[in-house]
Design brief:
Structural class of chain A: mainly alpha
Strand content of chain A: 5-15%
Helix content of chain A: 40-55%
Largest interface: A-B, 35 and 35 residues
Radius of gyration of chain A: 15 Å
Distance between the termini of chain A: 28 Å
Largest sheet of chain A: 3 strands, antiparallel
Shape of chain A: elongated
Oligomer: homodimer
Number of helices of chain A: 6
Chain lengths: 117, 117
């Protein structure tokens, strides 16, 4: 539940780069979305999730990324807080998938033409 | 000249989040584009440039952003290196505008549907 809540919060408060007005809070929220993807390991994780048909167990991300479990969990938390991924607990392991609103959110924040919002 | 060269280099080497394969260099280059926008001051600067019809003097960014000139110049260098802005020297001052390829680059790297490249 927490994951979904934080995702919705992030969706609500960020603004496109072409917004007519941009408050300090909106600038920070928009920067936070970009910051979440400003790390090569998180780009790789999103790439794995985007190209997977099913939710991916965190246990299956450790080896391909060559990172420890705590490091992968740290990256997943950043992506979760930015509202880009969803988390589902299945017994011992967490499974992740791209948040259904992530594509629209990225399209919105990167809008340079003022066409979207 | 240097600005244009670094922009072209960045365009050439980053990859969309939905890329079928993603090398370490591509993941880093893609993360670098996001990192350049992962700061509220740089989100504000891009917002000012996007919503301006003409190139903007760096001297006109200092007061609205409430930052010192060296800090603004630091942010401009990050945006320049990421290929998101263009720089033109006019006498004493540098003028900045959004790089013509920036919108396409942002659309490309944030593509989660694999439709673009």
């Amino acid at each position: 539940m927490r994951a979904v809540e934080s995702a919705q919060e992030a969706v609500a408060c960020c603004a496109p780069l072409a917004a007519a007005t941009l408050s300090d809070d909106e600038a920070e929220a928009t920067a936070a979305v970009f910051r979440a993807l400003g790390d090569p390991a998180r780009v790789r994780i999103v790439n794995v999730l985007v190209t997977s048909a099913d939710p991916v167990c965190v246990c299956h991300l450790i080896e391909p990324l060559g990172l420890s479990q705590p490091t992968v969990s740290h990256h997943m938390k950043k992506l979760l807080d930015a509202g880009l991924v969803e988390r589902e607990q299945r017994g011992k392991w967490a499974y992740y998938s791209i948040h259904p609103a992530a594509a629209d959110k990225l399209t919105a924040v990167t809008d340079l033409r003022g066409a979207c919002c």
